Amino acid sequence: MSDPAAWWRQAVVYQIYPRSFADSNGDGIGDLPGITSRVGYLRDLGVDAVWLSPFYPSALADGGYDVDDHRDIDPKIGTLAEFDELVAALKAAGIRLIVDIVPNHTSDRHEWFRAALAAPPGSPERDRYVFRRGEGLHGERPPSDWTAAFGGPAWEPAGDGQWYLHMFAPEQPDLNWENREVRDDFLKTLTFWADRGVDGFRVDVANALAKDLTPPLPSQAELDAEDLPDGVHRLRDRDEVHEIYKEWRELFDAYDPPRTAVAEAWVRSAHRRARYASPEGLGQAFNFDLLLASWDATEFRKIIAENLALARSARTSSTWVFSNHDVVRHATRYALPPGTDLKEWLLGQGANPPADTERGLRRARAATLLALALPGSTYLYQGEELGLPEVADLPADELQDPTWVRSEGTEKGRDGCRVPLPWTATGPLFGFGPGSAHLPQPAGFAELSVERQDADGDSTLSLYRRALAERRRLQSSEALEWHAEGPDDVVRFSRPGGWTCVTNFGEAPAPLPAGRVVLSSGPLRGGLLPSDTTAWLEPSS
Ligand code: NOJ
Ligand code: CA
């Protein structure tokens, strides 16, 4: 990449969920020194950047997305000095760092929220959040029937006829972004981390900051009406949210190199998402379209073409994601019959339908190799390089995700993708740490451990390492050329220099294009590309 400031346009970013990565002191919780001790692993894997999920002080009501103080480190995870050590170690390894910013809400332990509860209705302290009078003579009923993302009502009583809004757990009161103090405080937070050497920010629920609570409040059914035009939903993806990011962008661009940002914005269309990714805004946005797609060549082709075109028109690059800390791991999704209801499947402890783990892993490897050949950035989630499956059979009393309790046991939530990583095949906690683990690891993690895969040239870890190294060598500009010839269920495209990627989504083996095979996601047989396999080729010299 010629312009070093544009490093993020085609980067491989590795997401670390700190509590489940590596535990240095045996308290069962992964920590910053644990991550620092594994920087060599990240360097050998060949990632360009690390994205750290929240490490801020938190009661962990929502895995750290309930932040007590946006400018500090959770003592369970480390100290600011240890954060600086991690930044230095990553820098020395040539790895950039992105941190998670959670601007939609604070935790209920944040000093602002404590002050708000202690202050009277209508006070400046309450104005930093979204308080409203309840319905009924004494405000005894919530202001509306809105439901929260994890289940249950979106309003919680403050005890004096007033209620506060929480789009997520009750421990996550929503901030009021019309309040100038809130805006200024986040500018201060961004400056705090940017000055500490952070290269970029992942912005949590970036689409939810602007809200319209002008009375009368609509009902939940009216709120989510299908025919609502874009940009006017009361709580999500309102047009004026971009005014906030314009201010952030000015702050980012005052740094040399400019700080980057990526929006987490689950919005209605790829078209709406592109607005978050403009250079006047956050610059990039997660594209979850492939994550949501079936294993289908036509669907993949369409999503790729549409997102590349949209990214071009928004003057940015696209992103590609298959897994993160919020979804069932992709090796498992691809192991289940199309149309499987994942929530039902998790509720049944992953027994029915049974997962075809071999097929799941084969497809996951093929999908990742395909995405890594695309122009744009690929976001990897810790453990996918080991082909880890979702741990679907965690016992109910181990579940931490608020979804389980809030949904009254009708939805298990996201713990199954947050189980601590296996580093070694034997020993306590497969090398995660010397104590206990905050979520139990299954016995099958031994075979999938880094130690086992390190020594095996055909392992998923070896595939990721080789793919990341070859990508670095082969990648140049962001151009892509489609090849339409061949069977419909084969996706084939080339990048400048003749780097060709071909994926067989069909059942029958497909012919391989001419050229030297650089890498394939599975064994090639008889000069053909088997089902569920991706190969990279380059011109034979
Ligand atoms: C999105 C995060 O990825 C998720 O883990 C969290 O629960 C919600 N935002 C609320 O912060
Ligand atoms: Ca620890």
What does this structure look like?
Helix 3 links the parallel strand 2 (49-52) and strand 3 (96-101). The protein contains 18 helices and 18 strands. The strands form 4 sheets. Strands 9-8-7-3-2-1-11-10 form an 8-stranded parallel β-sheet. Strands 12-13-14-18-16 form a 5-stranded antiparallel β-sheet. Strands 4-6-5 form a 3-stranded antiparallel β-sheet, with no helix packed on it. The chain is of the alpha/beta class. 1-deoxynojirimycin binds at residues 62-63, 65, 102, 168, 204-205, 264, 325-326.
Report the portion of residues in β strands. 5-15%
The N- and C-terminal alpha carbons lie at a distance of 24 Å
Shape descriptor reads globular
Instruction: Give the mean pLDDT.
Output: 97
Widest sheet, order of strands: 9-8-7-3-2-1-11-10
From the alpha carbons, calculate the radius of gyration and give it in angstroms: 23 Å
Report the strand count. 18
- Give unreliable regions as ranges: none
Helix content, binned percent: 25-40%
Give the biggest beta sheet. Answer: 8 strands, parallel
Output the number of helix runs.
Answer: 18
Helix vs. strand class: alpha/beta
Q: Multimeric state of these chains?
A: single chain
- Ions, cofactors and other bound molecules: 1-deoxynojirimycin, calcium ion
Nutshell version of this structure?
This protein has 541 residues and is an alpha/beta fold. It contains 18 helices and 18 strands.
Strands, helices and their partners?
Elements lengths: L11 E5 L15 H6 L1 H7 L3 E4 L27 H13 L3 E6 L9 H8 L5 H4 L3 E3 L21 E3 L4 E4 L14 H16 L4 E4 L16 H4 L17 H13 L6 E4 L6 H7 L6 E3 L3 H4 L4 H17 L5 E3 L8 H4 L8 H6 L9 H16 L4 E5 L20 H5 L38 H4 L1 H5 L5 H15 L6 E2 L7 E6 L3 E6 L5 E2 L4 E5 L7 E2 L3 E6 L3
Parallel strand pairs: 1-2, 1-11, 2-3, 3-7, 7-8, 8-9, 10-11
Antiparallel strand pairs: 4-6, 5-6, 12-13, 13-14, 14-18, 15-17, 16-18
Helix pairs in contact: 6-8
